[in-house]
Design goal:
Aspartate Aminotransferase, domain 1; Aspartate Aminotransferase, domain 2; binds pyridoxal-5'-phosphate
Length: 360
Amino acid sequence: MSLPTPRPDLIELEGYHSPQLDVQVRLNTNESPYAPPAAFVDAWLDALRAVPLHRYPDRAAGDLRRALATRLDQPAERVFCANGSNEVLQTLLLAYGGAKRRALVFEPTYPLHTHIARLTGTEVIVGERTSEYRVSTTEAGILIAAERPAVVLLCSPNNPTGTVEPRATVEALLAAILDHGPGLLIVDEAYGEFADWSALELVADDVPLVVTRTYSKVWSLAALRLGFAVAPPAIVAELEKVVLPYHLSVATQIAGREALRFDPEMRSRVDVLVSERERLAHELALLPGLMVMPSGANFLLVRVDGDAHAIWRRLVDHGVLVRDFSRWPRLEGCLRITVGTPEEDDLLLAALRGVLEEER
Ligand SMILES: *Cc1c(COP(=O)(O)O)cnc(C)c1O
């Protein structure tokens, strides 16, 4: 064999897979079911046409950061933008994780946290969530004291369970980190707009807290790849050192800025999806043998009584794709369903009723 082998710690890593199938109703990847407003697309393309494309983009993404800061009521120095919140997380772990450092995650949670930590050479420590998928502050405190992680990753609302951690949990984690640190708490709020509170209100210049968010979900812009962090300015400065120069294309920067002009539309979509989530949760709970976890996001985790993988496959036969988590540790029997349009959700409900009937 003449080809070299990669880093030994990468050999056992598996790539990140989220199966895509060509079906009528796709409720498997938590995107918005609605395309962005046509007026946004026009504004974005008009602005893009005026840009000198032979020049590098604004390296600091100044306009975008200022616009975001205004909307979030934060100073611009606290805002860092990258290609999706996954790149934000990778940059954070490159800067604050790495060799001989540990990252603490609470399973079951977003698998990319572990994946990105390992890619950056950071050792992963696993804390367990309770049977209700909450983070126990007592257990977390014990782990933080014993392992002294450089980074603690908290996903809230948690993917794939939908669990929203209360403010008291975030404060308790911060207190444990301050007692046993130094360390950094990263709250991944990819679904933060759907929840009833946000850790953004706890961000301050001298608190080791970073909140990450994305345009991929509520802003209907998953294809454009834009995410951001709100963090103390000293941390933002470190992230700027780590990220590659000109990583954020001008098309992405302009999209992020123009999208903010459609804030009222975005907010009304959040309201629509939240009330549709509640309707779907109610309808699902009426189905036999089905348990629905409470969710503060745009998806619902359900536990089925029976062979969840078989049910998932039968749903695909009916043209409905959800995400099968049933073979994941701590998620036996679980499927995750993204909230779609009312029409899509009705097709899911009809298909699921049929499949559950056949299963009996
Ligand atoms: C979807 C999702 C993201 C978003 O990733 P992008 O790179 O911004 O598309 C981040 N964290 C969680 C938990 C997610 O579910």
